[in-house]
Amino acid sequence: MTAHEDPAAFAPELILLAGAVVALLTGSFVHQRQQWAAQLVAAIALAGSLVAGATAGASGQTLYAGSYAIDAATFAARLIVPAAALLVLGLSAGRVRGSARESEFAVLVLLASLGTILLAGSTDLLLLAVAYLLASIPLYALAGWARDPAGAEGALKTYLFGVLLGIVMFLGIAVLFGLAGSTSYADLAQRLPGAPPAALALGAVAVFAGLLFKAGAVPVHFWVPDAVQGATTGAGAFLTTVPKIGALLALYRFVLVLPDDAINWRLLLALLAAASMTLGNLAAFRQDDPARLLAYSTISQVGYLLMVVVVADPVAGSAPLAALILYLAAYAAANLGAFAVIAARPGLSTLTDYRGLARQSPALAGVLVVSLLALVGTPPTGVFTGKLTVFAATWDGGWAWLVVVAAVNTVASLYYYLRWIAPAFARPDPSAGSTGGAVAEGSTPVAWPARCVIAAAVTTGCLALLIGIVADGVLDIGSAAIKW
Question: At a CB cut-off of 8 Å and minimum separation 6, what does 408 contact?
Fold first, then answer.
């Protein structure tokens, strides 16, 4: 066995794959009332993958003929993705418990998480294509998991966009292969500088299209609001959090092989970053549905994250990558925290319905405040440190105008987050009646699923603060250079 074929180095991914198979078989052979066993299998697999990823570290080696790298980006994905997926299982407990498709939800989460990690670690365009499919196909099913009209509409839009942009991405891969004669990132970095600029631009933009779809960025963002609003709360939380991690790390890795002197890809991504944060914010101003507000919020967040990709440079050090990893980790915690509050209060369909939440459930109100202010970038949360490092890296990279646009959008975003926070601390309206107990999403509250949702909400709120406190340690994760 050669070094690049060592299965032990691939342990975190293999654990997720094995967990998906076992969860599927478990759900197929146990009674519907015991489908929770598949959820338990999924949770164990995610925890096992997280431990294995933390143990493996960022060795810098490449596996399987250089097609997969175990470096800082992959290490970060191995930590953030399983942790986020575990929280999704927790905040989904009340909704999926007792459903005939309870095991399916667990399997889909595992497979999508596996595809996301593969996206982050791919150093070959062919593996990138496979990872894209594995990370996308389960999402279509998750979006329509509830099998209701709204979910079906969201799933259909996600599927149509995903298939179309997947084909465009594969076209780009074919063009780049034709130019370089190889799909390996190492070969692309050496051979693309001499390629015809028009063909190189076509290939690069086509690959961008697929990865930007996964991230939910402008101009391929139209599926996000309908998919999140139509999906269950847990599926919406997953859709707006986990795919971004793999997509942005994959995009960061891919742009490092593109020559600056042939095509101005940095300006293109800078314009898309500015458009994403601006259009996402403008659309969020008028939203009254919490899930839809978070859907547009996540589009704006992609704009801030893309700023780091704009200044990615293989010879400029690892500061941009470290900033991206910190921001992704902090954003995941804050975004999941906001969705956990929605899951804990399933009967509240508008922002004004949260009136009096602070008196009825101080813990949930606290999580809501921390999560939403974290998304703005308020100290001492992790997103504040993440934005600060992102802005600093972008400014040092010579894109001052983009930092100014991002700063203005950050201030503007405070408005629609406060529209959600303010009612929570207002006096309850006696004429409105009870807004419902702090129970998990579903028509029939169940004791332990309800506790799982509350625990997930509190955990995410604490993580949003903790990541800000231990930001230096998170930045150290991204201190190693990306390999291929």
Answer: none
Report helix angle 290-310 to 400-424, nearest 10. 160
Return the sign of the alpha-carbon dihedral for residues 146, 218, 348, 375: positive
Residue 29: which residues within 8 A CB-CB, separation 6 or more? none
Q: What are the residues facing 184 on neighbouring strands? A: 124
Our measurement of the distance from residue 204's CA atom to the centroid of its chain's CA atoms, rounded to an integer in Å, reads 22
Is residue 126 a contact partner of residue 173, using CB atoms and an 8 Å limit?
A: yes
Distances, alpha carbon 217 to alpha carbons 171, 186, 213, 221, 244, in Å: 20, 27, 6, 5, 10
Task: Provide the pLDDT for residue 249.
Answer: 96
- Determine the Cα–Cα distance for residues 88 and 102; give it in Å rounded to an integer: 13
In terms of C-beta distances under 8 Å and separation of at least 24 residues, what long-range contacts does 52-57 make, across chains too? 52/11, 52/12, 52/15, 52/78, 53/12, 53/78, 53/79, 53/82, 54/78, 54/79, 56/9, 56/11, 56/12
Whether residue 225 has a cis bond before it, omega within 30° of 0: no
CB 238 within 8 A of CB 109: yes
pTM above 0.85, yes or no: yes
pLDDT in tens, 377-418: 999 999 999 999 999 999 999 999 999 999 999 999 999 999
Q: How far apart are CA 301 and CA 299, in angstroms?
A: 5
122 forms beta bridges with: 68
The length of the chain, given as a count of residues? 484
Of 79, 86, 81, 82, the closest CA to residue 56 belongs to 79
Question: What is the pLDDT at residue 480?
Answer: 62
**What sign does the CA torsion over 227, 232, 235, 237 have?**
positive
Residue 433 confidence (pLDDT) above 60: no
Query: Per DSSP, what are the bridge partners of residue 124?
Result: 184
Token readout for 186 is: 């190492």
The residue among 265, 244, 250 whose CA lies nearest residue 123 is: 250
pLDDT over threshold 80, residue 163: yes
